Amino acid sequence: MQRRIEIGKPQSFSRPNYRPDIDGMRALAILSVLIFHAYPSSLPGGFVGVDIFFVISGYLISSIIFRGLTLGTFSFFDFYARRVRRIFPAVTVVLLGSFVLGYFLLTPYALEELIEESPYAAFFLENWRLYVTTGGYWETATELKPFMHFWSLGVEEQYYIFYPLICFLLWKVSAKRFLTSLVLMLLVSLGLCLYDTANEPVRAFYSLHTRFWELLIGGVLAYIELKWPEYKKNCVTIGGNEFINNALSILGLSLIVFAICVFEEGKDFPGWRALFPTVGSVLIIAAGTKASLNKYVFANKTAVFIGLISYPLYLWHWIFICIAKNNLAGDLPDGILMIGFIVASFLMAYLTYALVERPMRSRKATWQLILILVLVLALISLGTKTLIRKSQTLQNMLYSGLPIEVQETLRDLPRSEERDVECENLFGQGHSICRSTVKNPRILLFGDSHNHIMWKALYRQENLPGFYIVGSGGSVIFDRATLIGGDGKPQIERMERVSQVWDTLRRNKEIDTVVLRGFWVGNLRSQLISEKHLNLSGEELLKQLWRDTFEELYSLNKHVILVLDNIELSFNPLTKCSPIQRINLSTNPEEKCSVRIEDIDQDQIKIREYLIQEAARWKNVKVFDSWEALCKNGFCNMNINGKPMYRDENHLSVYGNALVWQKLQHYLN
Predict the structure, then answer these.
(1) What pTM value is reported for the model?
(2) If you classify domain 417-567+601-633+651-668 with CATH, what class do you get?
(3) According to the model, what pLDDT value does residue 275 have?
(4) What are the phi and psi torsion angles at 650 (to 5°)?
(5) 180 CB contacts (<8 Å, ≥6 apart)?
(6) Where is the Acyltransferase domain (predicted)?
């Protein structure tokens, strides 16, 4: 007779036998990911190591749960306590280490962003954060996030939260149909994965529901092994056990190696391609410890050692590589520097495993211990984030020791300077910047964050001409149009803010001059949607929106000054050309402090040429080229007389904006 299943009372699990070959599989997984991150071109499909981890985790966790359910000894408290003791201490140490490393190698504002992101990494919401805020795992902005790799931990931990409860309920409803229920869930998740990979690829990559099947496929194997240990003999009649096991392991490894060597980043993943590493992993596990490959390759001492430290190694390696990549303005460290970071990753992984992970796992699980571990992690992540936000002393410490020009560039605009009542009464609330320099000015400076940041160079100046300045970061200037966000939905709130500006322009005849400044090449590369032109998209829609804008401003009898934007860069010049980090890893920090105009990418040239051509069709439009202020003799300069001209890849610094303003103001007279 089955014993009663108790919830909440700690009990010992009837654990599956230890398999050193599975630790060896972990070594294959982590080395694939590490090499992919360190040397992307040498192992293009190395990212599938994460999928191997998913299968292994699903198999081992399911083995524990199913044995507990079968014996009637399953305890939710014991299960979750083991997860906390296994995972939280290492995460806490890695977060602390990343803060220290970031203090010396990151720019102050990049360190602030790191600290801001840490709670999402700490409490396994990074996959959700990346889905909402980025364009995907493969985009440049994501590759510069030191906690980006926590997305996979987010998927696993969310799985651990729901999976035991689902299994418990399914077991209680019908133990006989348990396997059928698992297979059905697997197929549903796989179907959702295939659908989202084709239609919502970012969601497919990061979401639990599209990755659930990858963990569950290991769970199905665990259940079959538990209930029918002789299943291979019954299913395969050709050859003996040794032949079957060797064939399974060789086929499984072949599928994984194919995926690692052939797949490329950003190419329809996970989708059906994820079947190669996942099915391959299941076959190797199914082959068992007696298969030659498992016994002599995966179970050898070196592979097992790497497998044992694979969890902290996964956490540490990307911290080192990515922070170094940020320090080098987006370039991967190379040569001895990369080797040094890999060695440091292994060293820190071993120390974390030996001094933190292993001792903590051997401690008896109590409510007090679990509560302490959770509180410490919350203090390190949420507490540090709160302190950085509210402590001026810590803010000053972050920026201390940096050149005054860098501090001036990085200093945020005082909140009191962001908006005033007169401007907001006219143009509405919620804009990043909404200011007026005199009462009832006749000039409006209107745009996105490129317009907003210009105010940082102007608000301290005296004798400014009369104007309103309105800027909404991440918006477009077009009426009843907006960008499609990372979640695939139109940014309606931003559209409404911009529409308020247009409504004001239609009503207010005193404003006779409109200066348009924005990240025009960003508009070209983004996905736009317009309520006026639902049948148009892409470049065709963008051109139509510009024609509509010029036409309406002409009909409203407004003079227009169109600012051709500064160049966008493929690197952060503030990092490359200024001593902004306390330790600069670049051997030649001045190597990219100017860019030849002929090397500027074609998208920027295309949008400039279009705007010049379109503006020439309208008598009321003048064109001001910001390149006049920043570019000379065929080069655009990132650093002039020791002063940084840029704040990041596309936003000018206070000094760069001051140069642009010196020439732009002559157009306002």
Answers:
(1) 0.75
(2) alpha beta
(3) 96
(4) -140, -10
(5) none
(6) 21-352
